[in-house]
Design goal:
Length: 438
Amino acid sequence: MPDERTLQILEDVNWIHASVADINGRLRTVIIPSSSFKKDDIWENGIGLDGSSIDGFLRVENSDITGIPIKESLRKLPWTDGYDSAALLFLRTTDTKGGPYPTDPRNIASTIKKKAEGMGFNTIKMRIEMEFFALENRDDVYLEPETPAEYMLSPSKDGAFRFRDELSAHLIKMGYPIRYHHHENGWGQQEIEFGFMNGICDVADAAIVEKFASRFIAERHGLNVTYMPKPFGAQAGSGMHNHMYLSRDGGNAFWDAEDVHHLSQTGRYFMGGLLEHISYLAVITNPIINSYKRLHGGMEAPKFVAWGFGNRSALARIPGGEKKSTDIEVRNTDAAANPYLAFAGIVLAGLDGIKKKIDPGEPSTEDLGSLSPKELKQRGIKQLPENLAEAVDMADSDPLVKELLGESYDSYMERKRREWKAFMNTVTIWEKERYFDV
């Protein structure tokens, strides 16, 4: 029987957006009258879905899957009202025998959570920074915004201030912890930063909901939003930074009061595993062709496989300023990634570091972007793949990527190979302008 909280939400809305995320991290939704959820059977028996029509799930010849509602994920969409009033509900998918369907990204993330628990870590604490551009909507032409390119722009000069205010207020009403929002470094670039949440799936849900909500709210303000990692060549790119630490016995396993930087040996080993595998995971954390224009386009893009204390030129860092708390910030991930897979891959890499006691080496204290290739080589600092094709090739050589994706591995990698081939078969305007009269 639905609990009191659930029944109250069902009374307040007409529709339930029952949703899963496909392999690309895009929301797939079936809209069901809320009255259907006032009975026990839908909560117990779930909703029949055609898996063959959801990217990355199933083939046509074996396409029947069941979506089991996750009661605690039910959240009213506060910007809807009247006949349109709705709530969002995530589903976990099962196969015809009732077991977790292995290619559902949510189920993959849940598997990594169980692995962490098996190593004695009862909670994975994570928070995210969502960066994106808000563009003026002029006859469906996406234009570079005219607002100043200033970090933490004053609301009096920030044309997207009220949009971010409304978006953040709605997310708070939905129960998500918002730390703050502000204008980012690029023209029209925005950031919404969340507080810590429990578990990979809860944080991945938040990332997907934020993207989903931002598009509805932007339309009210005459804006379009894009989470494309590098939509404008001359502007800073957008990332999806994630902060994390593992919890053991209710405490932060990365915190050490005796260490000068308050980083425990467990945290160091986690960092070691992250740096060991992150280049091979780039096909998941930075999954599209445009991702690599952000990574290799300068402007503090985190392409150097290194770590440091407060060093923003490194791929991973230990942020300062928090008392009695230590977390690792991973800076290369972008919002084109499937958040369930990206966050699960990062945690899996860190767990491998803890298991194998991988030392991360000395922290970087220099501006890595100012070093020459020779100086980087002397320091043993590598860079993330230059492009998607290189990322695919690298992933093939790391068993951890295959462990993460499981049965999804072959189809995911083939999808990325096709994407690169399609790009290489496309002749751009830039090429024609530069080489037409060669």
